What does this fold into?
Amino acid sequence: MKKSLLLSKRILSAAAALVIALSACACGEKDNTAKENGVTAKAPASGTAGTSGSSGASSTPKTEAAAEDKTEAADGAEAEGEAATGDAAVDDADLSKSFGATDDIACGIMGDVAEPSMEVAPGVFTENGVDEVTPMANLLTAGEWNDNDNWGFFTNLINSGTITFPAFGIDPTNRTAVHVTDKDGQPVANASANLVADGDMVLWSAVTDKEGNAYLFAPSGEYGKLEVKISADGAEQTAEVTSTADEQGGQAKADTPMEITLDGKTDLYKNTEIMFIVDATGSMADEMLFLQSEFSAIAEEVGTDGTKYSVNFYRDEGDEYVTKCNPFTDDISKIQSLLNSESADGGGDTPEAVAQILDETITNGSWSEDSVKLAFLIFDAPPHSETEDTLKTAVSEAARKGIRLIPVVSSNADRDTELFARAVSICTGGTYVFLTDDSGIGDSHLEPIIGDYEVEKLYDIIIRVINDYRQ
It folds into this structure.
């Protein structure tokens, strides 16, 4: 995991005083509170919930007010060498590593203190005598959370009333998870999965991932017999669904995936299609610069063999344009040129043309049949409330086509935007990505209501997520 420290003004302004304090001390026992790999694991956000599944989430998410208290505590830290609390916490080991100081220097032995080591930034500038890290797009920090992998945690959030759905018409609560394997116990990827009511009414369709997992969702309403039908390579298997929600009604069920064995199997996809859907309004300058600076490096890291990209932009009614879409291509220089020619402008109000861009790129977009399909939705504002039908169609079509929607929620987003983003990622088998304040770049970022997570560079998360889904 890449370091996200040295990005806070509070850390740098307290550093010099801390070095002086350390140089006066006798050699003694050092502070053993160093953070693993130099990155702080985040605590949960507001509300109460039970423990999570695979990621070991905390059972008591912190409130946004607590986060503000944490920041105030960091700002008020003593300059006499006390480590600031919260995100700005700095221990002896981190400080020595950051400023190139040896253990001898820290214990008061004479020596030359090396220049500050800013390995995560290209340089510093000085303002009023205080060194600050130059904000750079490639330093954007983020976290990732997969609600489908932490379904027990998610259902406790729902059933406690901490969060509610639907969000702009998208309701991920009535989930039926399936795990499909062949007769040898191996996962069956790219199989068609359908949730069917009364024998012939298809409620939801999805495509199994490379681990054989698919997620199906029953819209609210009264249904008769519910079944899951799985088909691949001419083989078909049907299994009855016992329940999609608790008997209390209106609550999510912590379901155990249905295990389905299929005689047939499918081949893994050799090709991958990666789409970037970007909010290009005025508040998105940092994120736009990130893509302009880092896209070519991401493509080089991922590799171009069998991989195509598409970049698409949207703003809102009354702006220079509402949507601007481009086809898939393996020409990296062409994608880079499209990115470089775009700027963040327009907007002005909170809702943006999210429904319109999803309608063009997902519902009516040109995707290959035999490819892993990923769509990164990079945005900071919710859709218009009157576009629910368009949104529901786009999300259900994404699930049917096997397009994994991966929202990247940016600065100044509100809780409605978070819940919408999490809903679309759950319903399409994607994952939820969100920017954090750790980089010190841009405006404030909303702390999501999730369990513990690790802060990483956004660059690293995008590459890791792509590789997680590729076959």
